[in-house]
Specification:
Oligomer: single chain
Number of domains: 1
Largest sheet: none
Strand content: under 5%
Radius of gyration: 15 Å
Order of helices and strands: HHHH
Distance between the termini: 19 Å
Shape: elongated
Helix content: over 70%
Length: about 70
């Protein structure tokens, strides 16, 4: 695995951690949706995850596929 892939995977894990932190305090989805800051911050981290996944090398993706 390349160092770039390692950094991208670390970014994905960090974004997941942030989403968990931002969403963990809510009792239901309506409360979360109505909290603009937490909702927007979570969405931004989903965008980061998507961007990092799209930048993973083809070699990494090929070797990581489950059969």
């Amino acid at each position: 695995m390349s160092i770039k892939d390692t950094h991208r995977l670390e970014s994905i894990l960090e974004a997941i951690s942030k989403i968990s932190k931002y969403t963990g305090r809510f009792q239901n989805q309506d409360d979360f949706y109505n909290n603009e800051e937490a909702f927007d911050a979570s969405l931004m981290n989903f965008i980061i995850i998507g961007e990092m996944v799209s930048k993973l090398s083809d070699d990494f993706k090929k070797h990581s596929q489950q059969n």
